[in-house]
Amino acid sequence: MKHNISQDDAGHKKDDSISISESAKNALCVLGVVGDAVQPYLPLFSTVTIIITEINSIYENAKYNKKVCNSLMDRVNVAEFSIKTLERRKNENEKNFRDPVYFRAFHHFIEVMKNIKQFIANVSTLSGFQKYFHANSVKEKFESLTSEFESAMKDLHFTTSLHNEEQRRIDHESLDSDLQEMAEFLNTIGENVIDTNQQLNTVLTEIVILKNQMGSSKSNTTPITANEIDPKELKDPQVGRHDDRRGSTVVRKMLSNGEDVACKTKILDGDGQKIKAHLALLGKLKESKNILKFYGLSKVEDQNVMVFEWADFGSLQEVYGRYDIGWRSKIQMALDICRGLVFLQTCDILHHDIRCANIMMTKQLVPKLSNFKYARHNSQATTDIKEITNILRWMAPEKMKDHKIVRYTFKCEIFRFGMLLWELLFQKIPYEDNDMNKIKDHVLKGGRETIVMNISSQENRKIQNKFSKIIIAAWQQDVNIRASLLDIFLKLQKLAANYPIDTSPTLNPLGSLLLSQMIESVSIGKSATELPDSFQNFTLPTIVPLEEGIEAHKKKDYQKAWSCFNENVKFNSTVAKYWMGYYLSEGLPDGKKDPVKANLFFKEAADDGIADAQLHYAFSLLHTLNKPIPGIKFDRKVFVSYLSRAANGGNIAAQYNLGDMYFNGKILGIKNAELGIKFLKLAALNNDPRSIKILKDNKIDF
């Protein structure tokens, strides 16, 4: 059926069409203007999103001070929500987007988020925590960050419920709890990790340098090699034993100093230099009393061998297969194994295969970690179905889902340690009579091994109760509530203090102690189209990103670099403060030096943990000895403190200068050859030619 449209109707339709068309054009015009306003913010939104993603990643891998990190993560989550809301409501925030003050405030907000990221990265690792001078420095930095965060949020008109007395109480309790826990940990972990000056053991720093060099594409002027032992130094034992040969790959020999060693067949195929570098790293790890000592490479019966210390009792699995281990002794063994894991973790090394079969026992029944990543045979690929099943028994559920794709993390390591503790406590292999598929299905559903209680005495019952709680905390399904290694160590330390090894025997006849009774299972856990004139044209300030300023400096465009640093320092950028100090001290870009202002900028950046700033601040004090500067006073103690922090923070120039000063007795008024060699070795490992020359001239190995 045809519809006849009158002339008047047609006219109305035409008018409606024009009206709709004009409305659409006006709407698009508005959207276009809004789009122009938000355009400069799009890369800033991306920057914030990336920073928040990085913070989340750092937090997931936090090893220490988790409560402090939690307090800051509350703020990060609020910031993330606020940014997403701002992006979603672009039209409503158009006026703010056009405001130069708001634009600068957003840049300041980004810098605050960067500072939060750096602080979490520092306090969540042992090496990072050491960058702060004392506990008060951590408190002051935390309070400064939270205050600056609140200010930045307010400037962007973001709402937050975290600025109140209750939140401040929670923050202070978190700080006090974590710092008290860290103090206890540092005081009890031992000199293998922390030296008498409460600093990281130098060997750990050397190991980190070696690891970084092995992963670097840059050529190394000082090739990393394993120690070579002359085969003539390896003698046959004076008195033979039935276990002088263990399988086809291990034979007992005796070094010229009378120490028994295990010579383990090693096939150096593939990248021989890389293997030697790994073995050099392994040689450094012997500094830990709870890692099997690796002495070097040699030859026995025309075969390449790795030379390790001899473990008289074999593996811990072999020990518990022959004896019942005393309950108090089990506590000490668990604590010692934990010490070894802390040492590895501080070096950023994961064992990957923690179980009693890979813990070797010395004549004194001291447990030693062995057979981890850098000590395995090249031929030890885990393709054998029996070997895969063995590994699966200790495997974390998240890794079990897809062991080829899911990355092995320290959280996986903690789960494995929990399984080892169960194995040690009950002296049997986990899920002994189950096949691989049954184990996997059981664990992925949240199931675990059965916990049983020994009823031989009240004391043993208490010990097992405490042990069981530690085990359950370590094998939680949710990685976010799985115990940290620090927490496990402190609990084992307390248990060992309450039940020290006494006169009761460590090793008892098999079956004499393990009388068991089932206990209750424990849960593992689950519109106007016209715009005001001010909106038609707007200009936002040009803010050069800090990275571009540093790049400009490298290209010797000092004026551009100076403008960039000067702008970014207004956002309280720690890195910008360092560069401002550097430019003022060097008289860049116009030849005008201001050593007093430079000194202040260097100190602020130094106190925030920038190693280069710590070096420059130390020397800005030292220079006043030759040329006094009003407003800057040399203090020997402060100079040494900041230079030491820079050296411990990895600054090569600081390592060389401090080493040279101590070794040769310069400036400091004292000579300490041992301390000097320590820092010269660190610089030499970082390929510093001056340090290498001093060490070689004095015939000092490094």
UniProtKB/TrEMBL annotation:
**Gene3D superfamilies the UniProt entry points to:** Adaptor protein Cbl, N-terminal domain, Tetratricopeptide repeat domain, Transferase(Phosphotransferase) domain 1
Example of a GO biological process term: cell surface receptor signaling pathway
Per its record, what are the GO molecular function terms? ATP binding; protein serine/threonine kinase activity
**Sorted UniProt keywords:** ATP-binding, Kinase, Nucleotide-binding, Transferase
- Protein kinase domain location is 208-507
Tell me the superkingdom of the source: Eukaryota
Q: Which PANTHER family match?
A: MITOGEN-ACTIVATED PROTEIN KINASE KINASE KINASE 20, SERINE/THREONINE-PROTEIN KINASE TNNI3K-RELATED
Q: What is this protein called?
A: Protein kinase domain-containing protein
Write down the species: Diversispora epigaea
